Amino acid sequence: MRMRRKKNLEARLAAVQPFFVDIGETTGGYDGIPFEAAPLDLAAVFQNDNPVHLEIGCGKGQFAAAIASQHPDINFLAVEINQNVIVQAAEKAQQAGLSNLRFLRISAEHLGVLLPQDSIQRIYLNFSCPFPKKRQQKRRLTHEHFLQIYRGFLVSGGEIRQKTDNRLLFEFSLCEFSKCGFVLDFVSLDLHNSDVTDNIMTEYETRFSNLGQPIYALTARKV
Question: Which CATH architecture has domain 9-22+37-221?
Answer without folding.
Answer: 3-Layer(aba) Sandwich (3.40)
